[in-house]
Every structure is written in structure tokens, then in C-alpha cells.
């Protein structure tokens, strides 16, 4: 009799087991998204992309970012907090290519999957890296910049980047330098960093132009930097200006021909694919390696269907 | 060597039969139910998805109708420019725009691209930029012709970049000269207005609704940013092939239900996409539950089949056990079992048969016992003629010799002997009585053979009252006299001793110094029908042996040892039993 009851209980136990398993599999992954700074169109689009991926994957996202882009210690604190809160994965855009190595190693040792978005670290390998081909972008931007000059016209360039110690910025500037080395009469007069400060970028640009009136080309490699440089350039239309970003102000400057071209890295794509990669890693899959797209937008092409979507993506 | 296959038990066969039939029916019913349920779920999912798409389409139609109504109102106002001042008309239009967050602006252009009326004060883009835009070129072609664009960045005013859907229509307006001229009415709507209409539609957890124009170009898609970033692909090709209606296909590894409908007022088609795995999620749960219930039913069926077959076969097994028991000779337990009618009837028949067998066996036992008694009586009866003949012969002989005292002694002894022989009809007497019987016999024989032999009877104390079948010693003594002592020249001796021998035996030893027997004769004296036996020699001895064995069993009987010219020793072995009282006979 007891055996009969036990046999009858087996299917019921199976039923309860199934329901419990189903509940377990429905527990969403918790992912910490740690960007370089709270504001900015670039990071805003990245977060929008991550949110879109949240809908697709069901993952729970929490966003962390210091106020200033250069505040890597703030990022370290956020990574520590993510470890303490036992997140399943961390999506990180490290604002310093060496200072975050220890804490990233600690997170990985704790079994947390780490995905780098946009930039990486020099030594510590992440579980996955999603970025744009900044070497290619640098080459492409340089070629476009050169197109504004005749063959024998000397080019004296000023490059103002955002942070000096990020792998993406290093790759980008390195690529620009290579391109300049390959062209006669073209030289980079100065490379400076604004630390994403509009004021610092403005002052740097003003000082550089004053110190070297031959400067006829400026690259602002970040949106706040572009705003500062644009403010410094307004009265001097002779200087060609290529900027990174797609803020409304930059677009207006593009239309006003203060900026000759805008380089837009698809940070929506960056955010979306970072979350997707993190979830795939957590599910034991191997994410597909694919570079994030970018566009070099001019006044002429800004309303083209192709560029409209990437240039105005934050307006949607 | 091929082993013969063991036949299956009734219980196994019944369990198998019940289980197979029940499980087959259960599986058949489950398959039918599953088929019905899955097709019903699919049908319901299709209907509900189509209904959602139709609802979105209806909402969109309301919305476009609303825009067309506003356009009609603006068109009427445009014809009143000669009556109403421009500011008044613009104010009326602006009040509409201000009351609706979804409308960005409303502008009337002449066909040269110049602004006639506008709800916006923002600086306008140059005319050449206006004229080249799609909404302008597509609406031109005849009065009333209208066009809806897809979402795009508005390019009307500088420093402003909202994503809009543009409605444009060629209309008539009254120009400054009071004549009707052709113009182009533009209404820009926020693209999120259409997005919200579509986003409210939930087709499963990840299904969606999107629009395409008559060229198959996406007008609106909820995953537009993903499509732009090449993170999402849409199967426009299949939609273009089907134009209208419902179909299912597999795209990028997932089966999709696609519903296409035409949007009123705009040259758009609405496409609803639902994923079959989500729509059929209920079926998965149903399948899981059904499989568990099925497993439960199968296990239950097997258990019930086993219980029923056990119920049916248990009485049969019990009957089999009883039959085996009867086969082993155990008739004690009543051979009746319960159970169903047939088995109960069989059991009762078997019980009757066993009862009959038992009765027959009792009869056989009784008849055997009677037969044995008859045999004993017959053997016992054989003694009497010998004895009587010999004794009477001696009495006659003594009477002829006038030996009166001898006759008295002999007849007295004979009378005592017969008293013991009669023993009130009992077969069992005490050893004391048996030896008294022998003593009287020996007295008679001693007289007859005129002191040809001497005898002694020695009885161990305590054996007098032990029971024995009667008249077992006398034939041995008689045999010793007739075939041993009788032929002696010298004095014969006959000694009788009775003593106990452990364990549980009593020995009556008769020793004579007669002529003895050779070995061949000794070996055959106790066997029946021996050819060496002549003149009744050994018949009495054999009778005694058979009587003892018949009564006490084969462990008891006679042991004879003999040597020619030396004598014979006969040992009667009987079991030691509880003492009995001697028979009281009158002297």
C-alpha cells in the first residue's frame, strides 16, 4: 500500500519539480552598466541601447556613472559595489586603461562576467570587448580632413581628446598621427586633452590657436570638447573643424558650417550589444565579434536616410 | 539446448491485458485531445493576433481620419484668406496645434515653396531645401492628392530636428487677388504618436506591429534603431509576396505568425508579427501538465490492473496452494477459498473432492486396520490347534498310564493357560501374565516329555506389568522344544529371561541347548514361503515375528542366533510402554 502511494506521488513530485524549475529559469540576470559619466549624448545613446536590449533579454539593468568622465576612482567604487551586490555581469567603459585593472580582475575572480564597452584595459582581458574600429575611424576622419585642403597646402592640426588614458582615445589619436605622417605638409602641432570639460577645451583651443596661428585644422574627439572648441572658433571660419558627437548643438554647428564634419559612433549599438553579449556569456554562449558602426556626417549628408538615423538617433 | 519458455502467470497476463487496453485508450484520447487543443490554441492565437492588428489599424485609421479632418478644416480656412486676416487664420490653426501634442506644425505653401500660412514662428529653411523634400514632391499632382511620409527628421525650420511623420496634400487656396490657386498643406505629426499606437499592441511578449508603404519600405518599426544598427532584420520580402492576409513562416530560426492589413487613408500596410512559440506557450504548459497527468494515469492504470489481477488470481493461487498441500497429503486445512463466483465454485467442488478422498482414505485405513486385526487373530488362532493337540495328546497319554496326578497337573496348567489366552478378549496383557502363560505351557510340555528338559524363567523386577501382545513367547518355546530339545540325548535346558534394554525396549530372551540350526536355515526362518521349511517348522516363530512387526512396527520383532549342536537363542524385542494392570481372572 505504501509503495502504491509512493508511486502515485511520483507524478505529483514531478509536477512540483517542473514548476520549481520553471521559476528558477525565469530569474532574470542582473547586470551593472558602468559608463564614464552620467550626462552626454554618447552615453545617453549607449544607455538607450542597453535598455532596448533589456526588453529583448529580460535582464535587469542598473546604471552607474560618476559625474565627471575622468573620475576613474568613482568607477572603481561602482565596480566594487557591483561585486558586493553580486551582480551577474558588469558592462564597463573604463575611464583609465590601468587603474581599473585590479578591480576588474577582482570582479572576474568573483565569477562576474565583465564586458568592456567602447574602451578597454591594457593588461586585464575582459570576458568580451565591444568597440568601434578606432584605427579605421582615425584613418577615415583624417582622409576626410585632408579633402578640405589642396595637395600642396600645409596642414597644421590641433587634436583635443577627452581622456588621455583610454584605449579608444589612444587608438584614435595614434591612427590620426599615422595618417598625418603619411601625408606631406601635414603635421599635428599639438595633442591636448580636455577631460570632457567644455571650458578646458575652449581654453586649450584658444591658447593653441594664439600660440600657433598656423593651425588650420582642429579635431575635437568628444562632444563636450567639440562644444568648447566651437566656442573658440566661432569668429574664425578659416580653421577646419571636425568633431565627434551628435548633440543638437553640434548638429546646429554642422548646419552653420562651423563644424565641417561630425563623426558619430553608434553608441546605441554599443549599449545594445554589450547587454546581449553579457547575457550570452552568462548563458555559456560565445558572443559574435563585430565592430560597432560609425558615420562621418557632413552638412550635405546629414538628412540622408542613412545618416539621419545615426545622427538624430537621440531625438527619436 | 533451447529451454522451454515458462508460461506466464494469470496475474501477469491480466495485468498486461488490462494495462495495454487502458493505456492504449488513454494515449488515444490524449492524442485526440492534444490535437484538438493545439489546433484550437493556434486558431485562437491567430484570431486574437488578427484582432489586435485590426485594432491597431482601426486606431491608426481614427488617427489619420482625425488628421484628414484637420486638413479639411485648414483647407476651408485657406479658401477664406480673402475674408479672414492671415493672423486670424493662423491663430485658429495654432489653437488646434496647441491643443494637440502630437501635431508639431501646420504650414500652407504655395507651389513655389513659399509659406502662406504657418503655426510656427521659427526661422524657416531656404525654399530650395523645401521644394526638394519628398513630402512636397509626392503630394504635387492634382488637387486632393495627399501623402503620408514615414518618420523622418523635420527639415522645415533651422535648429530644430524633431522626428515627424508628414501629411501633405495639394489644396486650393484663395490668393491675395481673391482667386483660387494651388498650394500644399503640410501637417507634421510627432512620430511617437504613431509609435504609441503600435506599442500598445502586445502580440505575445516580443511580437510587434510595423508599417510599410506600398513600395515595401518600412514606414514605422518599433525596432527601427536596431534595424538601423543592423541589430535586427525584418522579413520584408515575405510580406511583399503575400500583400494581404495571414501566413506563417520561419525567419531567423523562429516560426512567426504574420498578419497583413491595409491602412485606410494612407498607402501603408500594417504588419503584425507574433512568434508562434510565445503564442503556443500555453500549449507547452498544457503539454507538460498533460504528460504528467498521462504518466499519472499510466502508473495508476498499471497499479489498478495489478490490483484487479491480484484480486482475481489470489483465490486461484490460494486454491493452487491448497491443491499442493493436498498433494503432499495434508488434508487437514479446509480447501475452500473466497474470490469470484467461478473460483468459489471450483473451490467448493475441490473441497467436496478432498472430502470424498479423505472419507475414502479413512475407509481404507479402517479396512486396513480390520485386515490387520483379522490377520493377528488368524495368526493367534493358528497356535491353538497345535497347542491343544499336543496337550490333549499328553493328557490322553497320562490317562492311559493312570497317572492321575500328572493329568491333574497338566489339566490345571492347561486351564490356567487358557484363562490367560482368553484374557477377556484382550490382545494386550502384562509380561507377567505372558510368562505365567509360558510357565503353564512348559509345565504341560515337561510332563509330556517326562523331564526331558528343565526350564527357568527369570524376570527382571519392574517388568511384570509392562504390556505386550499376548502369546508371543509360547510359540518360540514350543519351537525350541519340538525342533531343538526334542532331539537331545542329554537333558535339555530352556532358560527365559526378561529384561529392559535402553532405549525403550524390552527383551524376552529364550535360550535352549537344543540341536540348533545351520546358517542357511537360520537365514530363512523368518522369511515367508521358504522351501527349506518342512513340517510346519518355523511357522510359529515367523507368526510371532510378523505379529510383533504388525503391531509395533518394523523396528521390533525377533532376533535369532543359533549354532548347530550348541543351541539357539531367540530374542523378542518389543517396545517398553507404560505399565498396565494385569487382568483379574477367577481361579
Automatic annotation (TrEMBL), chain A:
Residues 31-285 form the Periplasmic binding protein domain. Keywords: Signal. The keyword Signal applies. Its main location: other. It comes from the Bacteria. It is found in: Cell envelope. It holds the Pfam family Peripla_BP_4. GO terms for cellular component: outer membrane-bounded periplasmic space. Coiled coil: none annotated. One of its GO terms (molecular function) is carbohydrate binding. Residues 1-21 form the signal peptide. Belongs to the bacterial solute-binding protein 2 family. This is Sugar ABC transporter substrate-binding protein. The lineage of its organism: Bacteria, Pseudomonadati, Spirochaetota, Spirochaetia, Spirochaetales.
Amino acid at each position: 500500500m505504501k509503495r502504491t502511494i509512493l508511486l502515485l506521488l511520483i507524478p505529483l513530485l514531478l509536477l512540483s519539480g517542473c514548476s520549481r524549475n520553471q521559476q528558477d529559469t525565469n530569474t532574470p540576470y542582473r547586470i551593472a552598466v558602468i559608463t564614464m559619466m552620467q550626462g552626454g549624448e554618447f552615453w545617453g545613446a549607449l544607455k538607450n541601447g542597453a535598455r532596448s536590449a533589456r526588453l529583448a533579454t529580460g535582464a535587469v539593468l542598473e546604471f552607474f556613472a560618476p559625474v565627471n568622465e575622468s573620475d576613474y576612482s568613482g568607477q572603481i567604487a561602482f565596480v566594487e559595489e557591483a561585486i558586493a551586490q553580486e551582480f551577474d555581469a558588469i558592462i564597463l567603459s573604463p575611464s583609465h586603461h590601468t587603474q581599473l585593472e585590479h578591480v576588474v580582475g577582482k570582479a572576474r575572480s568573483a565569477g562576474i562576467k565583465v564586458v568592456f564597452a567602447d574602451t578597454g584595459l591594457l593588461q586585464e582581458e575582459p570576458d568580451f570587448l565591444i568597440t568601434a574600429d578606432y584605427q579605421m575611424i582615425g584613418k577615415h576622419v583624417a582622409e576626410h580632413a585632408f579633402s578640405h585642403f589642396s595637395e600642396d597646402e600645409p596642414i597644421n592640426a590641433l587634436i583635443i581628446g577627452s581622456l588621455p588614458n583610454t584605449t579608444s582615445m589612444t587608438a584614435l589619436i595614434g591612427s590620426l598621427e599615422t595618417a598625418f605622417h603619411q601625408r606631406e605638409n601635414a603635421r599635428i602641432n599639438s595633442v591636448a586633452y580636455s577631460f570632457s570639460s567644455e571650458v578646458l577645451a575652449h581654453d586649450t583651443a584658444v591658447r593653441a590657436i594664439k600660440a600657433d596661428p598656423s593651425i588650420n585644422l582642429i579635431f575635437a574627439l568628444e562632444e563636450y570638447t567639440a562644444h568648447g572648441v566651437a566656442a573658440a572658433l566661432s569668429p574664425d571660419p578659416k580653421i577646419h573643424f571636425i568633431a565627434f558627437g551628435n548633440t543638437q548643438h553640434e548638429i546646429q554647428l554642422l548646419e552653420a558650417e562651423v563644424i565641417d564634419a561630425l563623426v558619430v559612433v553608434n553608441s546605441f549599438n554599443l549599449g545594445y550589444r554589450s547587454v546581449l553579449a553579457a547575457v550570452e556569456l552568462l548563458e555559456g554562449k560565445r558572443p559574435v565579434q563585430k565592430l560597432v558602426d560609425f558615420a562621418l556626417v557632413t552638412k550635405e549628408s546629414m538628412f540622408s536616410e542613412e545618416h539621419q538615423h545615426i545622427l538624430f538617433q537621440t531625438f527619436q | 539446448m533451447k529451454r522451454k519458455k515458462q508460461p506466464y502467470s494469470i496475474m501477469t497476463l491480466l495485468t498486461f491485458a488490462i494495462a495495454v487496453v487502458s493505456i492504449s485508450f488513454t494515449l488515444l484520447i490524449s492524442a485526440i485531445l492534444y490535437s484538438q487543443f493545439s489546433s484550437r490554441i493556434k486558431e485562437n492565437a491567430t484570431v486574437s493576433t488578427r484582432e489586435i492588428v485590426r485594432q491597431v489599424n482601426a486606431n491608426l485609421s481614427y488617427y489619420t481620419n482625425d488628421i484628414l479632418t484637420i486638413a479639411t478644416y485648414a483647407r476651408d480656412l485657406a479658401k477664406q484668406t480673402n475674408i479672414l486676416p492671415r493672423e486670424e487664420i493662423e491663430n485658429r490653426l495654432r489653437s488646434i496645434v496647441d491643443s494637440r501634442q502630437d501635431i508639431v506644425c501646420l504650414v500652407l505653401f504655395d507651389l513655389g515653396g513659399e509659406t502662406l500660412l504657418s503655426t510656427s514662428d521659427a526661422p524657416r529653411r531656404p525654399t530650395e531645401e523645401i521644394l526638394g523634400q519628398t513630402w512636397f514632391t509626392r503630394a504635387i499632382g492634382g488637387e486632393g492628392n495627399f501623402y503620408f511620409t514615414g518618420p523622418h527628421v523635420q527639415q522645415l525650420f533651422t535648429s530644430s530636428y524633431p522626428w515627424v511623420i508628414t501629411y501633405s496634400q495639394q489644396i486650393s487656396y484663395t490668393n491675395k487677388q481673391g482667386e483660387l490657386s494651388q498650394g500644399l498643406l503640410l501637417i507634421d505629426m510627432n512620430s511617437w504618436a504613431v509609435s504609441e499606437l503600435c506599442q500598445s499592441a502586445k502580440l505575445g511578449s516580443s511580437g510587434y506591429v510595423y508599417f510599410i508603404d506600398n513600395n515595401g519600405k518600412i514606414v514605422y518599426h518599433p525596432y527601427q534603431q536596431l534595424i538601423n544598427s543592423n541589430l535586427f532584420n525584418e522579413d520584408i520580402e515575405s510580406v511583399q509576396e503575400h500583400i494581404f492576409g495571414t501566413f506563417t513562416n520561419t525567419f531567423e530560426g523562429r516560426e512567426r505568425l504574420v498578419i497583413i492589413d491595409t491602412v485606410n487613408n494612407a498607402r501603408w500596410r500594417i504588419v503584425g508579427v507574433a512568434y508562434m512559440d510565445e503564442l503556443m506557450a500555453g500549449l507547452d504548459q498544457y503539454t507538460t501538465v498533460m504528460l504528467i497527468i498521462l504518466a499519472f494515469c499510466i502508473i495508476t492504470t498499471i497499479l489498478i490492473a495489478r490490483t484487479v489481477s491480484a484480486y482475481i488470481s489470489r483465490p486461484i493461487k490460494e486454491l493452487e496452494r491448497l491443491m499442493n498441500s493436498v498433494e503432499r497429503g495434508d488434508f487437514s486445512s479446509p480447501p475452500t477459498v473466497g474470490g469470484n463466483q467461478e473460483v468459489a465454485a471450483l473451490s467448493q467442488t475441490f473441497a467436496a473432492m478432498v472430502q470424498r478422498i479423505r472419507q475414502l482414505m479413512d475407509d481404507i485405513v479402517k479396512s486396513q486396520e480390520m485386515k490387520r486385526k483379522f490377520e493377528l487373530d488368524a495368526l493367534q488362532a493358528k497356535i491353538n490347534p497345535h497347542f491343544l493337540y499336543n496337550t490333549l495328546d499328553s493328557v490322553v497319554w497320562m490317562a492311559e498310564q493312570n497317572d492321575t496326578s500328572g493329568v491333574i497337573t497338566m489339566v490345571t496348567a492347561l486351564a490356567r493357560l487358557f484363562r490367560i489366552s482368553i484374557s477377556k478378549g484382550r490382545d494386550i496383557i502384562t509380561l507377567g501374565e505372558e510368562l505365567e502363560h509360558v510357565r503353564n505351557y512348559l509345565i504341560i510340555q515337561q510332563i509330556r516329555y517326562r523331564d526331558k528338559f528343565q526350564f527357568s524363567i527369570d524376570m527382571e523386577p519392574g517388568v511384570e506389568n509392562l504390556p505386550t501382545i499376548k502369546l508371543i513367547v509360547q510359540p518360540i518355546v514350543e519351537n525350541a522344544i519340538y525342533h531343538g530339545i526334542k532331539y537331545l540325548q542329554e537333558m535339555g535346558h530352556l532358560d527365559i529371561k526378561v529384561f529392559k534394554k535402553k532405549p525403550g525396549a524390552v527383551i524376552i530372551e529364550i535360550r535352549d541347548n537344543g540341536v540348533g540350526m545351520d546358517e542357511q536355515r537360520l537365514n530363512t526362518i523368518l522369511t515367508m514361503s521358504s522351501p527349506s521349511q518342512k513340517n510346519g517348522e518355523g511357522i510359529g516363530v515367523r507368526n510371532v515375528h510378523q505379529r510383533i512387526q504388525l503391531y509395533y512396527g518394523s523396528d521390533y520383532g525377533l532376533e535369532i542366533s543359533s549354532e548347530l549342536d550348541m543351541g539357539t537363542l531367540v530374542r523378542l524385542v518389543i517396545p517398553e510402554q507404560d505399565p498396565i494392570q494385569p487382568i483379574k481372572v477367577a481361579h
